[in-house]
UniProtKB/TrEMBL annotation:
<keyword id="KW-0547">Nucleotide-binding</keyword>
<feature type="modified residue" description="O-UMP-tyrosine">
    <location>
        <position position="56"/>
    </location>
</feature>
<dbReference type="InterPro" id="IPR015867">
    <property type="entry name" value="N-reg_PII/ATP_PRibTrfase_C"/>
</dbReference>
<dbReference type="GO" id="GO:0005524">
    <property type="term" value="F:ATP binding"/>
</dbReference>
<dbReference type="InterPro" id="IPR011322">
    <property type="entry name" value="N-reg_PII-like_a/b"/>
</dbReference>
<keyword id="KW-0805">Transcription regulation</keyword>
<comment type="similarity">
    <text>Belongs to the P(II) protein family.</text>
</comment>
<keyword id="KW-0597">Phosphoprotein</keyword>
<comment type="subunit">
    <text>Homotrimer.</text>
</comment>
<dbReference type="GO" id="GO:0005829">
    <property type="term" value="C:cytosol"/>
</dbReference>
<keyword id="KW-0804">Transcription</keyword>
<dbReference type="GO" id="GO:0030234">
    <property type="term" value="F:enzyme regulator activity"/>
</dbReference>
<dbReference type="Pfam" id="PF00543">
    <property type="entry name" value="P-II"/>
</dbReference>
<dbReference type="InterPro" id="IPR002332">
    <property type="entry name" value="N-reg_PII_urydylation_site"/>
</dbReference>
<protein>
    <recommendedName>
        <fullName>Nitrogen regulatory protein P-II</fullName>
    </recommendedName>
</protein>
<dbReference type="InterPro" id="IPR002187">
    <property type="entry name" value="N-reg_PII"/>
</dbReference>
<dbReference type="GO" id="GO:0006808">
    <property type="term" value="P:regulation of nitrogen utilization"/>
</dbReference>
Length: 117
């Protein structure tokens, strides 16, 4: 059905939470996601570490970026699942952004929007 509303959910999480989040998302019916290793900073603003006796600033913290495209009707459930699964209660747990997708196309078949997922 053309015009089905589709959402892009972008989430940054701690790397050690990736497998747990992936399992939880597949458990609620998410059929695919893109995963990227990234570096960033927010409230943490980096920190200092000692390497071979010298102290140096770590300005960027390793994170995992998830990009998940789902039908709009699933978006809230996906956000809630990521939020509850990735949360440790400590600074740097991450962020979640939800965006409208103007168009989605499956390359192999030409299906569009929610049918393309």
């Amino acid at each position: 059905m053309k015009g089905n509303k589709v959402k892009l959910i972008i989430a940054t999480i701690k790397p050690f939470k990736l497998e747990e989040v992936r399992e939880a998302l597949t458990g609620i019916g998410v059929r695919g996601m893109m995963v990227t290793e990234i570096k960033g900073f927010g409230s943490q603003s980096g920190h200092t570490e000692i390497y071979r006796g010298a102290e140096y600033a770590v300005n960027f913290v390793p994170k995992i970026k998830l990009e998940i495209v789902v039908s709009a009707s699933m978006a809230d459930q996906v956000v809630d699942t990521i939020k509850s699964t990735a949360q440790t209660g400590k600074i740097g747990d991450g962020k979640i952004f939800v965006l409208d997708v103007a168009q989605a196309v499956r390359v192999r078949t030409g299906e569009t929007d929610a049918d393309a997922l």
